[in-house]
Specification:
elongated; 9 strands; nine-stranded antiparallel sheet
């Protein structure tokens, strides 16, 4: 991570919003010009407790939690469903900021998944049907063949959401905001759910 630029803020406890979503909303707005600001790491564990991680895209956030979408038959889905908890990391290099989120996770309802799927580009909709995510393929030709079959199936018509594809929401219980500073003396603030309120603490860098 890069040293703090001279124009980077040095936040204090009094600068923070009262809840993590309000604070995240402010930082999200600051990151408007960051390339692919919605990219985030999703960390999970498998049934043996071994960690795993991959990049996904943030597709919404609010009081309920942080949303993303995936194939329900993928390796990540199996890990999410078995563990019931996960973690997210969002890093905006241009701002030297990091947000970490932990909490329980669950699938979105069908209506929410349908709504988002309908907003996706058509090639992404077809790809959701064609990809046997996380499962072995003989070669690229097999994947291309699967896509050709899907294109023939739907023609120019409406592409419905596959039953094996949909959304998740991570219900945040712990959210940490990290602002890079010089000398690695970074500013870190953690929001932790405490009943109906949030306990906010500064953490050592």
């Amino acid at each position: 991570m890069s040293p703090r630029r001279p124009d980077m803020p040095r936040p204090d406890r009094d600068d923070l919003r009262g809840d993590p979503i309000a604070q995240f909303s402010a930082w999200w707005a600051d990151a408007e010009d960051v390339l692919l600001r919605e990219a985030m790491t999703l960390a999970t564990v498998d049934v043996d407790g071994r960690p795993d991680a991959r990049m996904v895209l943030l597709k919404g956030f609010g009081a309920v939690g942080f949303r993303f979408f995936s194939n329900y038959e993928s390796a990540k889905a199996a890990q999410l469903d078995s563990a019931g908890h996960a973690a997210l990391v969002i890093y905006w290099r241009e701002l030297d900021r990091q947000v970490r989120v932990r909490g329980p996770i669950e699938r979105l309802d069908a209506a929410a998944s349908d709504e988002y799927f309908a907003s996706r580009p058509r090639d992404s909709q077809l790809g959701a049907w064609a990809s046997p995510q996380s499962r072995p393929l003989a070669d690229r030709a097999e994947l291309d063949s699967r896509l050709t079959d899907v294109e023939k199936r739907f023609g120019d018509g409406h592409v419905e959401r596959p039953p094996h594809w949909g959304g998740y929401v991570l219900r945040h219980q712990v959210v940490e905001f990290w602002q890079g500073q010089v000398g690695r003396l970074h500013d870190r603030f953690q929001f932790r759910a405490d009943g109906e309120a949030w306990k906010i603490e500064r953490l050592g860098p």
